[in-house]
Amino acid sequence: MKLGFLEKFLWGGALAANQCEGGYREGGKGLTTVDLCPSGQNRLDVMKGNIAELKINDDEFYPSHEAIDFYHKYKEDIALFAEMGFKCLRISIAWSRIFPNGDEEIPNEEGLKFYDSMFDEMIKHDIEPVVTICHFDTPIGIIEKFGGWKNRKFVDFYLNYCKVIFDRYKGKVRYWMTFNEINMILHLPFLGAGVRFEDGDNKLQVMYQSAHHELVASALATKLAHEIMPDSMVGCMLAAGEFYPYSCNPKDVMEAKRKERENLLFIDVQSRGEYPGYAKRFFRENNIEIVMESGDEEILKGNTVDFIGFSYYSSRCASVDPEVLNGKTSGNAFKSVRNPYLNVSEWGWQIDPEGLRITCNSLHDRYQKPLFIVENGLGANDIVEEDGSINDDYRIQYLRGHIEAMKEAILDGVNIIGYTPWGCIDIVSASTGEMKKRYGFIYVDKDNEGNGTLERRKKKSFEWYKEVIKSNGENLV
Prior knowledge:
This protein is of the alpha/beta class. The protein has a single domain (10-242, 352-470), classed as TIM Barrel (Alpha-Beta Barrel), CATH 3.20.20.80. It has helices at residues 17-20, 43-48, 70-84, 95-98, 109-124, 140-146, 153-169, 189-193, 203-228, 250-272, 277-285, 296-302, 322-325, 353-367, 393-411, 460-470; strands at 10-14, 88-92, 128-134, 175-179, 233-240, 243-245, 307-312, 316-318, 328-329, 336-337, 343-344, 350-351, 371-375, 416-419, 442-444, 456-458. It has an 8-stranded parallel barrel with strand order 1-2-3-4-5-7-13-14, surrounded by 5 helices. The radius of gyration is 21 Å and the shape is globular. It starts with 9 loop residues before the first strand and ends in a 7-residue tail after the last helix.
C-alpha cells in the first residue's frame, strides 16, 4: 500500500478577493471593511475597531482598491496557476459584489456574472474552486445601519447572501468555508466582523456576542448548503498554530492550554456543536452573557462542519514569567513569546515546520474530521535580479519543510485533503497592507505606494512547486 498523499490530494494555492481583485467600485460593488483599511500607521487601529470612521479619507492610501487587479487579469493568472498544475484554488467571493450594501432584496447581477466567469475559467483548467464565503469582507452599508456582527440581523443578511451564491454556483463549487479565520474577531474585530466599540462597552461581551452570531450563521449556512448542494463539503476556518509552554513550569503549561483554548473555542463550537465547559467558565468570570435566541443550541448541535480548514504560519509560545513576556515577537495578528529554538522571518514570524505536524495531529485528535491546510507560506522581500530572475530559495526551503511535515502528519494517520499555500501570486498583505511582503510563486510588479506595471513574472519557486504537484509531493528537491 502506497503511503503519503492521496491520489486526489488537492494541491493548489490561496487568495482572497479583498487582497487581489481591486476594482473596488467596479461592477456595482459596494464598500467593505478592507476597503477602509489604509496602509501605514492607522491600519492596525482601523482593523481593531479603534478608529470609528466609515469613510475613505483623501489623504490615505488604500492598497485594496486596486490590489493586483485580479478583477481584470484573472484569466491570465488562472492560466499561470494551471501551468503549475493546480488541482484547486482557494478564493473568496466579495459579499459586496453580490449585495453592495449587504441588505438589498435583489442581488447584483454583474457581480454574480463576474464569479460565474471566474469559476468557469477555473473549471476549464480542471481547477476545483474552494470558496470562502466571507473573508474579511463585510459590507459597509449594513455596518453603518446595524453596527456589524454584534447585531443579530446580520445572520439573516448573511444567509440571504449564502442562498443566492449556493443557488447560483451549485454544480460549479463543491468546497465552501463559512468565515475566514473566525477566531480573528478577538484580535482584529473590525476587520473580522465589522465590529466597532462605543465608550463604556465591555469589549469582550461585544466580541463574543458577535462571534456567537457568526457561529449561528455558519451553522445555518452549513445546513442550507447541504440542502441546496447535497454533495457539498462545508468547512470552518481557523488561524491555527500550536501554543507551546515556554518551560515545564506547570503554570506555563496551563497558560499554553488557556491560549490554545481561546484560539480553538469557535472551532470547538463549529465542529462539536456546543460551547465547551472552559468557555462557559470564562464567560462567567468575565461578565459575558451570550444572548441566544430560542433554538440556537439545537442549530449549533445539528449543523456541524464537514472539514476543518486552517491557516498555519508559525507556532507560538506561552509563559507567565514577566521577564520572558518582554521578549515577544510578531506572528500574524498574534504576539507570542520568542521561541529560542526557532528562526524568524523578515517580519518576525517564527519559522517552525515541525509545528505544522504537531498542529495537524492536535486538530485531528480533537475533531476527527478531514483537515484542509488552506494557508501557509513565507512573506519575504523578493529581489528582481538584473536578468529579471527572482531566486526565492528561502521560500522553497520554507515550503519544503512544511510539506515534509505535512507528509509526516499523514503518516501519523491524520486525514489531510488539501494544501493551498497563501498568496500563490503576490497580493496585498492583510496585516501590513504592504506589497513588498510577498508570498507568491508569481511576482507582481507593484510597490507599497501603488506604483508599478502589474506585470506578472515567474519566480524560481514557480517551477519548483510545479514539480511538487506533478510528483504528488514526492519530489521536493
